[in-house]
Design goal:
globular, alpha/beta, six-stranded parallel beta sheet
Length: about 425
């Protein structure tokens, strides 16, 4: 009797089904099939520019691109449901040329989507769901670097009409109206024109992205924005102390704003040692700008060569450390305010286990292994971002009924 009782006790406390790495991965893949896994930042367009001069016949992502971490066969293997392609504009374009640079990036993204049987064009949350249901990767555009608008709200509207659905207010250096995270502050956050940029983005339906900006700009953007803001590719500063990451004070504002932090996998923003190694990386961009003041394209190209070499010497970190950031973001901001924004595309150093875009299901499986429910993971991989997009779209509909375009250029407000 005692042996029988002991057996019953063992059966009572043992899980009904043993969870193996394969079973977690199977659950992760099932979630990716059910919900579009959305990543909000991939730098493939930058690589097309730097390595092929935007010639898709010379560098076709429909075929394996072994020298970088992104191509469409691996994205399919990684079960990516929605991808924001970054139209990167470097800080060297702060004075002029940013709009043209952005247009060239937008052009190659649109041509890439048009010619690819793997991709489908989307500009709304509903569009992502529709394209994912077709078995394709929903493709959207985000501008990385507010230098693109050349201090004109008209350009915000024109970029929206071209399909841009978020804009990162700065990159490595300040704009004329917003402070960046990695340059000494010039404005104390947003200027009056910077606030007008945020309001016009709200009115058009373009998401306000505050990755790369200073803490002051983060706070100002959240204060001014009537729609949820996003961090398209940032991690937790409490774990990896880099100014590009999000401090706790801002994370705690996410529930009220209803915004979202999309976790970045770049080792310099994930691993504490790598964060120290990456401390001055974006300062170098300004050094190259100063070295070639009349040639911003050369400054950008040489900076990218230097950056690649710098990245290769960093501590790599691990997939588990990326999951640690997700844990922290969930604990501090809440389960409704976290997603994936990996920063694949131009990385040459990756966390072990996240070497390329095929590895997303392994990150999802790790969350399941840590005890997240399927419903919670569905939120992180896609539902949270879809909710943010819908709220931004709804805010735009409301504002367009009551608000007309106001100031046009920076001179109208910042004197």
């Amino acid at each position: 009797m005692r042996a029988c009782t002991l057996l019953l006790l063992v059966l009572a406390v043992r899980p009904a089904t043993a969870q193996t790495p394969e079973s977690y991965l199977a659950r992760a893949r099932a979630i990716h099939r059910a919900v579009p896994m959305i990543d909000t930042h991939n730098d493939l367009p930058e690589m097309l520019r730097e390595r092929a001069n935007n010639d898709l016949s010379k560098m076709n992502p429909e075929q394996p691109l072994d020298s970088i971490d992104t191509d469409f066969p691996r994205m399919k293997k990684g079960m990516v449901g929605g991808q924001f392609w970054a139209a990167y504009v470097p800080a060297s374009m702060v004075d002029k040329g940013g709009a043209t640079y952005a247009l060239e990036q937008i052009d190659v993204i649109r041509r890439m989507v048009a010619q690819s049987p793997s991709l489908g064009w989307a500009t709304t949350a509903a569009g992502i769901v529709r394209v994912h249901a077709q078995g394709k990767i929903a493709s959207l555009i985000g501008i990385e670097g507010g230098y693109a608008i050349e201090n004109s709200l008209a350009n915000v509207r024109m970029f929206y009409d071209l399909g841009v659905r978020y804009m990162t207010l700065t990159h490595g250096g300040n704009t004329a109206w917003a402070d960046a995270a990695t340059e000494p502050p010039k404005h104390g956050g947003l200027t009056k024109f910077g606030e007008a940029v945020v309001r016009e983005m709200n009115r058009t339906g373009m998401m306000v992205d505050i990755s790369h900006v200073s803490d002051g700009t983060m706070s100002d953007a959240i204060r001014v924005s009537e729609a949820p803001v996003i961090f398209s590719h940032s991690s937790a500063r409490a774990i990896a102390d880099h100014p590009r990451n999000v401090p706790d004070s801002i994370l705690r504002l996410m529930p009220k704003n209803r915004g979202i932090v999309m976790v970045n996998i770049f080792p310099g923003f994930v691993n504490p040692i790598a964060a120290k190694q990456a401390a001055g990386v974006l300062d170098k961009e300004r050094e190259y700008m100063a070295r070639y003041p009349g040639d911003p394209k050369r400054a950008s190209a040489e900076y990218l060569v230097w950056l690649t070499n710098a990245m290769n010497t960093m501590e790599s970190g691990t997939l588990g450390e990326v999951a640690d950031h997700i844990d922290y973001l969930v604990k501090t901001a809440g389960i409704d305010h976290v997603g994936y924004g990996a920063d694949f595309g131009s990385l040459t150093n990756h966390p072990k286990g996240l070497e390329d875009v095929s590895r997303y299901p392994y990150l999802t499986a790790e969350l399941l292994r840590r005890g997240y429910t399927d419903a919670q993971v569905r939120k992180i991989v896609g539902e949270n971002m879809l909710r943010v997009m819908r709220e931004v779209e709804q805010t735009a509909v409301r504002l367009q009924k009551t608000r007309k375009p106001g100031v046009e250029r920076i001179e109208d407000l910042d004197r």
